[in-house]
Amino acid sequence: MNNQFWFDAVGWIGAAALLVAYAMVSSRKLEGHSAVFQLLNVSGSLLLAANSIFYGSYPSTFVNLIWAAIAIFAIATRKRVSPR
User: Fold this and answer.
1) Which of 15, 22, 25, 6 is nearest to 63 (CA)?
2) In whole numbers, what is the pLDDT of the chain averaged over residues?
């Protein structure tokens, strides 16, 4: 199989991860500060960034890398803040 197939698959998996995260928070199955939500955001946005780099869509790459950075920051600060 060619590279286009793999990068398409990576992009679809990334899109699904972000949509699942959004749906779970919207339906109150996950909290917005939960590790699962943030990990879905990190993985989904990095997979979409890989797809958009492959296709040369740099504005989408930028948005997805910032999205991943925000999620990573949320995970890092979550571990440092003591639970109430």
Assistant:
1) 15
2) 93
